[in-house]
């Protein structure tokens, strides 16, 4: 999927400026400060927002699945949430493999509105994984405890050969999982490339706070300097 020269204006305000990149097979991670345009970009890519300029070129067999950062609270059984709004999949069996991995099978007969926010998120991630091959998720790790975060990161790392993920995050520790990193600031791309090449300066410029890079046991960490 190719994002080409996207511009978004809301009223008189320019929200996104000249956004171009290819969503690569693997894990594409969008980072950026609050208000930098991450959610607007995802909504534009899925067609919820019409760009004032540019185009989004989809491949033939690409099936987008979107997990928003905030959820509705429908009074529907979890299994009906999984089955809803999708013409291609209509059997609960198609969701069970991911449901087992994400440990949500015990909720299938519960009312979706009664789940905790983390359980709702796992349910919608399960749905997206079973339905799409381009999985677009807005802050999929927020509201998740350390074990569920690990579960999601392991699952998407396992699936990254087959699917393309485009996810936003506020956590710099996810950088090491990225196939491609996109950093936004004030609606513009200020870094696009491999996570290996990201420097402290790139992050410091993006966030306007001094950011340091550490290696502990060969694992990469970033921390804002106090
Ligand atoms: N409907 C709207 N009307 C006016 N301004 C808007 C509208 N939608 C978004 N914006 C503005 O566009 C900018 C980008 O918002 P967006 O939600 O895309 O940022 P974000 O990077 O996802 O932020 P966060 O990390 O805080 O979730 C913000 O300044 C926001 O106030």
TrEMBL record:
Top-rank taxon, per record: Archaea
InterPro entries according to UniProt: AAA+_ATPase (IPR003593), ABC_transporter-like_ATP-bd (IPR003439), P-loop_NTPase (IPR027417)
Gene3D superfamilies: P-loop containing nucleotide triphosphate hydrolases
A GO term, aspect molecular function: ATP hydrolysis activity
SMART domains given in the database record: AAA
UniProt xrefs under Pfam families: ABC_tran (PF00005)
UniProt keyword list: ATP-binding, Nucleotide-binding
Domain ABC transporter: 1-211
Alphabetized PANTHER family for the sequence: ABC TRANSPORTER ATP-BINDING PROTEIN MA_4021-RELATED
Name of the protein described by the UniProt record: Iron ABC transporter ATP-binding protein
Species annotation: Acidianus manzaensis
